[in-house]
Amino acid sequence: MEYKNKIPTDLRKEILSYLEKRVFISSNISYLPFNIFMTLSKVNKKYKEILFNVNFWLDYYKNKEYTIYYFIEEGFEYINKNKVEKELLIFMYTLLNKITEFSKETKSNFLELLLIYLIEYGYNDLTKKLLKNSNLYLKKDNLISILPVIKNKNISLLKILLIDERINPGNWNNEAIILATKNGYIDIVKLLLNDERIDPNDEYSDTAIVVAVENNHYDIVELLLKDKRVDPSVNDNEALITAYENDNKKIMQILLKDKRVDSDVLLE
Prior knowledge:
- This protein is mainly α.
- It has a domain at 170-268: Alpha Horseshoe (Serine Threonine Protein Phosphatase 5, Tetratricopeptide repeat).
- It has helices at residues 9-20, 34-41, 45-51, 54-60, 65-81, 86-98, 104-121, 124-131, 147-151, 155-163, 171-183, 186-193, 208-214, 218-225, 234-245, 249-256; strands at residues 24-26, 29-31.
- Strands 1-2 form a two-stranded antiparallel sheet.
- Strand 1 and strand 2 (29-31) form a beta hairpin.
- Helix 10 packs parallel to helix 12 (186-193) and helix 11 (171-183) packs antiparallel against helix 12 (186-193).
- It is elongated and about 85 Å long.
- Mean pLDDT is 88; it is low at 1-5.
């Protein structure tokens, strides 16, 4: 977040005086705990105008890598422990982009961490902006999770993430489609099935068809059966057995229409 208005000298001195009384001084390094920063930013609007001014902090820390690094780490720790406003995430994003001392790898690692929080808190516009940031280098085997998006039923953000080749919806043993299926989010299941990186028959986790049957989601069972990747006889016809145990005749009927399903398992 940038404020173009020039900061009054007296107000600047007032803030600096306040900070000097509250920072830890060690080896000539001024280390400001982030909770002090946030507490002070909530005192009144005039303080907040300075405290959310990126240039103020770069000047305060003299652009030295080790001090600003600690400040940012503290910031992410604060974000992890507290309900965070969009304003703070914008501040962190702007701060990271202003720093020139960090190596490409360091800056990218911080931006990746910021991306995780943006996804978790559901900030669509900032997520989209960050994904286009040239300083963000996501490795192909990154573990960015889309599970928070599914839990929040944020379809708009899910579409943004699925467009990006670096965000793999099949991460974590395809838990994304399992979660959507379990909760009956058919619109999300449809979106995920349109992505070839999704494996609804992942052998390392519950299969989508079985989860849909367990939770009596007939419409999702019907949808899954239309997908060539889905095998309704997986795990020795577990889907049919589960439908039988749940006494869900409607789901049993649709499963038995598939030639791959063996009705004889019900006689054993």
